[in-house]
Amino acid sequence: MINNWFSIPIYHKDYFDSHTMSICNSVNKCFDLMESNNELVNFNGTSKLSYGTQTKSALTKYNLIDVQEFIIQNVKEYLNLMQIIYSSVEILEDWLIGYKQNQNQGLHDHGYVDNIISGAFYTSVPDNSGPITFISPNPYYQHVLFKSDNNQYQDSINYFPKKGRIVMFPSFIKHIVNSNTQILINEKRIAVSFNVAVHM
Questions:
Q1: For 11-199, which CATH class?
Q2: What pLDDT, on a 0 to 100 scale, did the predictor assign at position 43?
Q3: Which long-range contacts (CB under 8 A, 24 or more apart) does 107-113 make?
Protein backbone atom coordinates (compact mmCIF):
# COMPACT_ATOMS: atom_id res chain seq x y z
CA MET A 1 0.00 0.00 0.00
CA ILE A 2 1.16 3.54 -0.75
CA ASN A 3 -0.20 6.54 1.14
CA ASN A 4 0.38 10.08 -0.08
CA TRP A 5 1.01 11.95 3.17
CA PHE A 6 1.79 15.55 4.09
CA SER A 7 -0.54 17.37 1.73
CA ILE A 8 -0.90 21.18 1.94
CA PRO A 9 -4.43 22.63 1.93
CA ILE A 10 -4.90 25.34 -0.70
CA TYR A 11 -8.17 27.31 -0.66
CA HIS A 12 -9.89 28.58 -3.79
CA LYS A 13 -13.39 29.77 -4.57
CA ASP A 14 -15.22 31.46 -7.44
CA TYR A 15 -17.75 34.27 -7.07
CA PHE A 16 -20.17 35.37 -9.80
CA ASP A 17 -22.62 37.57 -7.88
CA SER A 18 -23.21 41.22 -8.73
CA HIS A 19 -21.68 42.48 -5.46
CA THR A 20 -18.38 40.69 -6.12
CA MET A 21 -18.31 41.93 -9.71
CA SER A 22 -18.88 45.45 -8.41
CA ILE A 23 -15.93 45.29 -6.01
CA CYS A 24 -13.80 43.82 -8.80
CA ASN A 25 -14.58 46.88 -10.89
CA SER A 26 -13.71 49.18 -7.98
CA VAL A 27 -10.30 47.52 -7.64
CA ASN A 28 -9.67 47.85 -11.36
CA LYS A 29 -10.47 51.57 -11.29
CA CYS A 30 -8.03 52.05 -8.39
CA PHE A 31 -5.32 50.17 -10.26
CA ASP A 32 -5.83 52.38 -13.32
CA LEU A 33 -5.68 55.48 -11.12
CA MET A 34 -2.46 54.35 -9.43
CA GLU A 35 -0.97 53.53 -12.82
CA SER A 36 -1.85 56.94 -14.26
CA ASN A 37 -0.37 58.62 -11.15
CA ASN A 38 2.88 56.64 -11.49
CA GLU A 39 2.28 54.97 -8.12
CA LEU A 40 3.26 51.49 -9.34
CA VAL A 41 6.67 49.84 -9.67
CA ASN A 42 8.24 46.66 -11.01
CA PHE A 43 9.14 44.13 -8.33
CA ASN A 44 10.69 40.72 -9.02
CA GLY A 45 9.24 40.69 -12.51
CA THR A 46 7.82 42.89 -15.23
CA SER A 47 4.35 43.40 -13.79
CA LYS A 48 3.26 46.72 -12.24
CA LEU A 49 2.31 46.71 -8.58
CA SER A 50 1.86 48.88 -5.53
CA TYR A 51 4.05 46.60 -3.37
CA GLY A 52 7.39 48.21 -2.61
CA THR A 53 5.99 51.74 -2.80
CA GLN A 54 4.93 54.12 -0.03
CA THR A 55 1.42 52.65 -0.22
CA LYS A 56 1.34 49.99 2.52
CA SER A 57 -2.31 49.18 1.80
CA ALA A 58 -3.97 50.11 -1.47
CA LEU A 59 -7.31 48.94 -0.07
CA THR A 60 -7.06 51.32 2.88
CA LYS A 61 -5.78 54.21 0.75
CA TYR A 62 -8.78 53.97 -1.56
CA ASN A 63 -11.26 53.01 1.17
CA LEU A 64 -12.09 49.64 -0.40
CA ILE A 65 -13.69 48.30 2.77
CA ASP A 66 -15.83 45.80 0.85
CA VAL A 67 -12.69 44.15 -0.55
CA GLN A 68 -11.09 43.97 2.90
CA GLU A 69 -14.24 42.36 4.32
CA PHE A 70 -14.36 39.94 1.37
CA ILE A 71 -10.78 38.81 2.04
CA ILE A 72 -11.41 38.40 5.78
CA GLN A 73 -14.60 36.42 5.11
CA ASN A 74 -12.71 33.98 2.89
CA VAL A 75 -9.79 33.63 5.30
CA LYS A 76 -12.24 32.66 8.03
CA GLU A 77 -13.90 30.12 5.74
CA TYR A 78 -10.46 28.67 4.90
CA LEU A 79 -9.66 28.30 8.61
CA ASN A 80 -13.07 26.85 9.41
CA LEU A 81 -12.72 24.24 6.67
CA MET A 82 -9.44 23.16 8.26
CA GLN A 83 -11.11 23.17 11.71
CA ILE A 84 -8.58 25.65 13.07
CA ILE A 85 -9.59 27.54 16.20
CA TYR A 86 -8.50 31.19 16.11
CA SER A 87 -9.34 34.41 17.93
CA SER A 88 -9.10 36.89 15.04
CA VAL A 89 -7.58 37.55 11.63
CA GLU A 90 -5.93 40.73 10.40
CA ILE A 91 -4.81 41.91 6.96
CA LEU A 92 -1.16 42.81 7.42
CA GLU A 93 -0.57 44.19 3.95
CA ASP A 94 -2.17 44.22 0.55
CA TRP A 95 -1.19 45.43 -2.88
CA LEU A 96 -2.62 45.77 -6.37
CA ILE A 97 -0.80 44.07 -9.20
CA GLY A 98 -1.39 44.23 -12.93
CA TYR A 99 0.00 42.31 -15.88
CA LYS A 100 -0.06 43.30 -19.52
CA GLN A 101 0.98 41.19 -22.49
CA ASN A 102 4.19 39.19 -21.83
CA GLN A 103 4.53 40.43 -18.24
CA ASN A 104 5.25 38.08 -15.35
CA GLN A 105 6.19 37.75 -11.70
CA GLY A 106 9.27 35.73 -10.80
CA LEU A 107 9.62 32.89 -8.32
CA HIS A 108 8.92 34.09 -4.79
CA ASP A 109 7.12 33.36 -1.55
CA HIS A 110 5.56 35.63 1.07
CA GLY A 111 7.90 34.61 3.87
CA TYR A 112 8.41 31.76 6.30
CA VAL A 113 6.41 33.38 9.06
CA ASP A 114 4.13 31.49 11.43
CA ASN A 115 0.37 31.94 11.07
CA ILE A 116 0.42 33.96 7.83
CA ILE A 117 -1.99 33.21 5.01
CA SER A 118 -1.22 34.68 1.61
CA GLY A 119 -3.49 34.98 -1.37
CA ALA A 120 -4.74 36.66 -4.50
CA PHE A 121 -8.18 37.91 -5.53
CA TYR A 122 -8.52 38.25 -9.30
CA THR A 123 -10.51 41.27 -10.43
CA SER A 124 -9.74 41.44 -14.16
CA VAL A 125 -8.72 38.38 -16.16
CA PRO A 126 -8.53 38.46 -19.96
CA ASP A 127 -9.06 35.21 -21.84
CA ASN A 128 -5.95 33.04 -22.12
CA SER A 129 -4.20 34.67 -19.16
CA GLY A 130 -1.14 32.82 -17.89
CA PRO A 131 -1.45 30.63 -14.78
CA ILE A 132 0.09 30.99 -11.36
CA THR A 133 2.42 28.04 -10.79
CA PHE A 134 2.78 26.70 -7.25
CA ILE A 135 6.04 24.90 -6.47
CA SER A 136 6.07 21.99 -4.05
CA PRO A 137 8.04 22.77 -0.85
CA ASN A 138 8.78 19.07 -0.55
CA PRO A 139 12.16 18.08 -2.05
CA TYR A 140 10.88 14.59 -2.89
CA TYR A 141 10.91 15.35 -6.60
CA GLN A 142 14.71 15.71 -6.46
CA HIS A 143 15.02 12.17 -5.15
CA VAL A 144 15.84 9.32 -7.50
CA LEU A 145 12.52 7.58 -6.74
CA PHE A 146 10.54 10.42 -8.26
CA LYS A 147 12.66 11.28 -11.29
CA SER A 148 10.19 9.77 -13.72
CA ASP A 149 7.23 10.68 -15.86
CA ASN A 150 4.80 9.58 -13.16
CA ASN A 151 2.21 12.38 -13.19
CA GLN A 152 1.10 11.49 -9.67
CA TYR A 153 4.29 13.03 -8.30
CA GLN A 154 4.64 16.50 -9.75
CA ASP A 155 6.80 19.27 -8.38
CA SER A 156 4.46 22.06 -9.53
CA ILE A 157 0.79 22.76 -10.20
CA ASN A 158 -0.67 25.38 -12.53
CA TYR A 159 -3.71 27.29 -11.32
CA PHE A 160 -5.56 29.53 -13.75
CA PRO A 161 -7.02 32.89 -12.73
CA LYS A 162 -10.58 34.00 -13.33
CA LYS A 163 -12.44 37.20 -12.50
CA GLY A 164 -14.08 36.79 -9.08
CA ARG A 165 -11.75 33.93 -8.10
CA ILE A 166 -9.78 33.94 -4.84
CA VAL A 167 -6.94 31.60 -3.92
CA MET A 168 -5.17 31.36 -0.55
CA PHE A 169 -2.21 29.36 0.69
CA PRO A 170 0.39 29.23 3.48
CA SER A 171 2.85 32.10 3.01
CA PHE A 172 5.86 29.82 2.50
CA ILE A 173 4.58 28.29 -0.75
CA LYS A 174 6.77 29.45 -3.63
CA HIS A 175 4.97 30.51 -6.78
CA ILE A 176 5.47 32.08 -10.19
CA VAL A 177 3.02 34.11 -12.28
CA ASN A 178 3.65 33.11 -15.86
CA SER A 179 3.81 35.55 -18.77
CA ASN A 180 0.53 36.51 -20.38
CA THR A 181 1.68 35.66 -23.89
CA GLN A 182 -1.80 35.10 -25.29
CA ILE A 183 -3.67 38.23 -24.13
CA LEU A 184 -4.18 41.27 -26.34
CA ILE A 185 -1.80 44.21 -26.09
CA ASN A 186 -4.45 46.52 -24.58
CA GLU A 187 -5.68 44.02 -21.97
CA LYS A 188 -4.70 43.80 -18.29
CA ARG A 189 -4.87 41.06 -15.72
CA ILE A 190 -5.39 42.66 -12.28
CA ALA A 191 -5.41 41.17 -8.78
CA VAL A 192 -5.31 42.11 -5.12
CA SER A 193 -2.54 40.22 -3.32
CA PHE A 194 -2.42 40.06 0.46
CA ASN A 195 -0.93 38.63 3.63
CA VAL A 196 -3.25 37.92 6.56
CA ALA A 197 -2.18 37.17 10.14
CA VAL A 198 -4.10 34.51 12.06
CA HIS A 199 -4.17 35.26 15.79
CA MET A 200 -4.66 32.16 17.94
A1: mainly beta
A2: 86
A3: 107/135, 107/174, 107/175, 107/176, 108/44, 108/174, 108/175, 108/176, 109/171, 109/172, 109/173, 109/174, 109/175, 110/171, 110/172, 110/195, 111/171, 111/172, 111/195, 112/171, 112/172, 113/171
